[in-house]
Amino acid sequence: MNDLHALLTLSTVHFIALLSPGPDFALVVQNASRYGRKTGFYIALGLSFGILTHSILSMTGVSYLIHLHPTLFSLVRFAGGSYLLYLGLIALYGTIRYWHSSNTQANMSVQSATSSRRIAFTRGYMTNLLNPKALVFFVSLLSSLIPSDMSLPSKGAALVILWSLSLGWFGLLAWLLSTAKLQQKLHKVAKYIDGLCGLLFTSLGTLILYMSII
């Protein structure tokens, strides 16, 4: 009964956290609105596996050790900040290129390359995995809600819950943003969404990089 209560609490807290806007949310919005449902789904799949990886590392104590070690945690923050900065610069470059290029075919080829399944999955996975806030969140969440004496099946259920809720939420978001009517409207403002997401990723990446070296 205690295990069931812990799992229900874990589900509630994690779902509330998923609803909070952040890099994961922005990544799904940016890609699903510009590249459509398939790309949005693979972004969501990558994010959910990033969350699953964080959950496993936290449950096994690896993330806790990284968090306790200042040098290792700084390296994680540096890698995460660098990757977010990279995503931001790509988005800003695409926005600038859109405004200045009259070559539609070139823009279409960039879109085709960016929207491949492998790139979309990797982008989602790395964005979540390298997010130092995600590492701290899951260390805190699982250490407080998953007791060390919890049964192995219950711990497995916790991992399934965290992964499935993540995939369900981000997948639903990608689906809602890629309906036919909404896609027509979003394509008209895609350049603005790219620009805003680019500014967000660049700002967050720069901030995390700064925090990792001070």
From TrEMBL:
Q: What is its main location?
A: membrane
Ranges that cross the membrane: 6-29, 41-66, 78-99, 125-146, 158-177, 189-213
Q: Which UniProt keywords apply?
A: Cell membrane, Membrane, Transmembrane, Transmembrane helix
Q: Which organism is it from?
A: Vibrio tritonius
Indicate whether Cell membrane appears among the record's keywords: yes
Where does the protein end up?
Cell membrane
Pfam families per record: LysE
Q: Which InterPro entries does the record associate with it? A: LeuE-type
Q: Which domain of life is it from?
A: Bacteria
Biological classification of the source? Bacteria, Pseudomonadati, Pseudomonadota, Gammaproteobacteria, Vibrionales
Membrane topology note: Multi-pass membrane protein
Keyword Cell membrane found: yes
What is the protein name given in its UniProt record?
LysE family translocator
